[in-house]
């Protein structure tokens, strides 16, 4: 076990919170007997975030920053961070102070005990809507049922990872990334700590419901083939039902003659079944699209600048 702790912070338009975050990190680090690295990943911010990172680095050499070539999204920003981070333990943290830096000493003490993944579970979520809490509650339950791996409920990306856990995640080169699933997938010793999630310190969330839905679909599809199987089961059930119905119609015709069958029932049945077919095609398409994207095998991201040095 070494003695350098890295804080990895993906940043997208957080000019309002960066100074505050740095001050709080600094205060926490002063109380601890470790070397620190504060690595900011600038994920294509359009505000002054990058300038602030440069300023901070001038004041304090423990600050590092990586400037990505555009906005790639938090999942890719974290992947870039794993490539550049140098610490023996790595703590992932949001820039908006929803993840309190004051939890760091507790995380580190569990790491000293030998845990590889000390994750912070939300006891409550102040400042988030009832609807967001409910949808997130149900998402975790469904995901757990569908995928075979244990994904921690009500837990964000806020956690400490040991060096070997980070090395493991770096080997995962997938483009469609549901990083929270990776943390579970790699295994190793996990430890839970509870905390109260605060509302954003300033600025606004980059998530809307469409993006959250996208991430939810990502989570399910990259960790489970169950939707494909469910399609098969639905197909079987419909086929069985219609077979029984067919026997019934044949018997009825043989026994009682053949009165004109109902046109509306026929049309609604056709519409219903073609609806189901489209849904199933869509499910197949979701998987196929991912196969397509992964086979292109593009690099995950491009970076422009690392600590004042241009990347060629
Ligand atoms: N973030 C990022 N790239 C993006 C969107 C967000 O690096 O495209 C960062 C953002 O700066 C923050 C973290 O990811 O540090 C979480 O974002 P946010 O607070 O908007 O999400 P929420 O906490 O509302 O789920
Ligand atoms: Mg946030």
Give a written overview of the molecule:
The chain has 312 residues and is α/β, with parallel strands linked by helices. The chain folds into two domains: 231 residues, Spore Coat Polysaccharide Biosynthesis Protein SpsA, Chain A (Alpha-Beta Complex); 71 residues. It has ten helices and nine strands. Strands 7-5-6-4-1-2-3-8-9 form a nine-stranded mixed sheet, sandwiched between helices. Helix 2 links the parallel strand 2 and strand 3. Helix 5 packs parallel to helix 8. The radius of gyration is 25 Å and the shape is elongated. The model has no long low-confidence stretch (mean pLDDT 87). Bound molecules: uridine-5'-diphosphate (UDP) and magnesium ion. The site of uridine-5'-diphosphate has 16 residues, from strand 1 and helix 3.
Would you spell out the secondary-structure blueprint of this structure?
Elements: E1 4-11, H1 18-30, E2 35-42, H2 49-59, E3 63-68, H3 74-84, E4 89-92, H4 104-112, E5 117-125, H5 130-146, E6 155-162, H6 163-170, H7 179-185, E7 190-197, H8 209-223, H9 226-256, H10 263-296, E8 303-306, E9 309-310
Parallel strand pairs: 1-2, 1-4, 2-3, 5-7
Antiparallel strand pairs: 3-8, 4-6, 5-6, 8-9
Bound molecules: uridine-5'-diphosphate and magnesium ion (MG).
Organism: Paramaledivibacter caminithermalis (strain DSM 15212 / CIP 107654 / DViRD3)
Transmembrane segments: 230-251, 263-288
Membrane topology: Multi-pass membrane protein
């Amino acid at each position: 076990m070494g003695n350098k702790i890295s804080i990895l912070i993906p940043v997208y338009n957080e000019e309002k919170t960066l100074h505050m975050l740095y001050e709080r990190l600094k205060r926490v680090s002063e109380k601890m007997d470790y070397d620190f690295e504060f690595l900011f990943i600038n994920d294509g911010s359009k505000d002054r975030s990058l300038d602030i990172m440069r300023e901070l680095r001038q004041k304090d050499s423990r600050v590092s920053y990586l400037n990505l070539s555009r906005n790639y999204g938090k999942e890719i920003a974290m992947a870039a961070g794993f490539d550049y981070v140098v610490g023996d333990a790595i703590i992932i943290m949001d820039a908006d102070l929803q993840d309190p830096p004051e939890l760091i000493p507790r995380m580190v003490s569990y790491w000293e005990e030998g845990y590889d993944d000390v994750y912070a579970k939300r006891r409550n979520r102040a400042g988030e809507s009832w609807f967001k809490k409910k949808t997130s509650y149900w998402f975790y339950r469904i995901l757990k049922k569908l995928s075979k791996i244990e994904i921690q409920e009500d837990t964000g990306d806020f956690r400490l990872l040991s060096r070997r856990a980070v090395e493991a995640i770096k080997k995962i080169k997938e483009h469609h990334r549901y990083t929270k699933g990776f943390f579970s997938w790699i295994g190793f010793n996990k430890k839970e700590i509870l905390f109260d999630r605060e509302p954003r310190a300033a600025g606004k969330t980059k998530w809307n419901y469409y993006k959250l839905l996208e991430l939810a679909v990502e989570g399910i599809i990259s960790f489970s083939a169950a939707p494909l199987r469910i399609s098969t089961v639905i197909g079987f059930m419909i086929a069985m039902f219609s077979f029984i119905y067919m026997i019934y119609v044949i018997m009825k015709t043989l026994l009682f003659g053949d009165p004109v069958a109902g046109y509306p029932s026929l049309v609604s049945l056709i519409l219903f079944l073609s609806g189901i077919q489209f849904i199933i095609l869509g499910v197949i398409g979701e998987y196929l699209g991912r196969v397509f994207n992964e086979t292109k095998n593009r690099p995950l991201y491009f970076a422009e600048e690392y600590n004042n040095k241009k990347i060629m």
